[in-house]
Here is the input.
Amino acid sequence: MIRYALSCDHDHGFEAWFASSTDYDDQAARGLVECPFCGSTGVRKQVMAPSVAGTKKTAPSPDAMKQVQSMMMQAAREVRDHVEQNFDYVGDAFAREARDIHEGRSEKREIYGEATPAEVKKLKDDGVPCAPLPSLPPDPKKAN
Here is the structure.
């Protein structure tokens, strides 16, 4: 496993773990690496010092890593399902509606929808709370 310090094109910094450097390169090229703050896929590696441990540790087994990945994907599905079942979908009017709710011009309610990275940045800069829904990989059962 390798840990990278990453940042998006909106200067949000975060870390992510990959099985190898080629896994990062492959996922980034396919647009699968995204910022957890704004959802941007314009992600790049940052300079970081390697972690050096004083003792040898064994790497987690592939089965353990698959189990952790499965649990994380299940949690992401549950969050997404909860939002889709309990929040109002406002489509591409999300930024406007979130601002109206925040400023008291619209009734207070939980919403979700679509917003561009620029709209998300402006909302955050103005103190309007918002966060991206977790992305899910395509369902293999629904693939061609």
Q: What stands out?
A: Strands lie at 2-8, 13-18, 43-45, 88-89, 111-112. The mean pLDDT is 86. Residues 92 and 114 are 5 Å apart (CA to CA). The first helix runs from residue 21 to 29.
